Request: fold
Amino acid sequence: MEIQETSVSYCQACGKDFKHLDIVYFAVWDNNIVCQKCAEAHHEKELRVYVDGEKARGNRVGKHD
Ligand SMILES: [Zn+2]
Reply:
């Protein structure tokens, strides 16, 4: 099973910044990307992983950060 990636870098409910490869949620009802805490209020949600575009390029070669 593969988690879809998102490039949204912060929670669209509370504004919390995500770190590269954080597990976040897509709230189906709101069409928003939210953090795990905010996702507790949502019943329909899907897992996403936040990928920082610049770091993702670096991490193809070697994990380092
Ligand atoms: Zn949040």
Notes: The first strand starts at residue 4 and ends at 6. Residues 59 and 65 are 9 Å apart (CA to CA). Residues 4-59 form one domain. The chain has a mean pLDDT of 90.
